[in-house]
Specification:
The chain is mainly α. The chain has 2 domains: about 5-170, no CATH class; about 175-260, Tetratricopeptide repeat domain (Serine Threonine Protein Phosphatase 5, Tetratricopeptide repeat), CATH 1.25.40. It contains 12 helices and 6 strands. α9 runs antiparallel to α10 (about 215-225) and α11 runs antiparallel to α12. The chain is globular and about 70 Å long. About 40% of the residues are buried.
Amino acid sequence: MSPRQRFFDCLHRSPPALFEAALWIAAEHDDGVEPQALLRDFKELQQTVGTGLPMLPAGELAQPLLRRMNDLGFAQDDFSPLRPQAALLHKVLQTRRGQPLALALIALELARGLGIPLAGVNFPGHFLLRVPGADHLLDPCGGRRLYPNDCRDLLHRQYGPDMKLNAEHLQTAEPLQMLQRLSRNLRQLHLTHDDFIAALIDAERVLELGNANAADYLARASLYQRLDCPNAERFDLERALLLSDDPIQRLRLTERLEHLPPNAIVH
């Protein structure tokens, strides 16, 4: 099977193999990635983390787990501009630097193996973690506790003071949502570094995961434009037009479609 097929095979398991699926995403971009070997190596990291945890009930070990990871060098990648390696899990395991979501995926797998309850939270702009039933969230980059006011401040730093915190921002993230967010992150990072083919691989995965929005189709259309594929670009622009609720965006999409050459007919 191809890495993409193995990726979806992980998602179809019960429960989904979230961490392994993220490794297969990395394998799509690097032929040298061997997910099964990385999973074996990960057991050593799990043992190292586990032996450094305090003797507490499992429900109280999530924050110590994140602090232990930080002690071992896992931290947010502050390189600017951010590189794709900050979201490719094999690179994050190697450098111990990554985006919040990548660090959270490692923490979630460690927690799963150690029997520590922990869940992802699809917070805008900065992925977070939650102990089920707790009155706070946790930052995967070091383990800081975030209460509602902290979450509001974080949201304002990311999007400005007009952005209002709501319940949707604090919802638990399902495996598919996390992997789609990871794919969107990689799509943007590869685009920022002008690697259009790699970005297209990620853009296609975003759409294959389902529940794609107009922005997802528009992102792939822009990649097709850069790669001089007008027929494919037209298809995605038409899909974006169908999904868009923004009248200004719809007008711009219509104008852009009018400037494309007619669909070529292949015999």
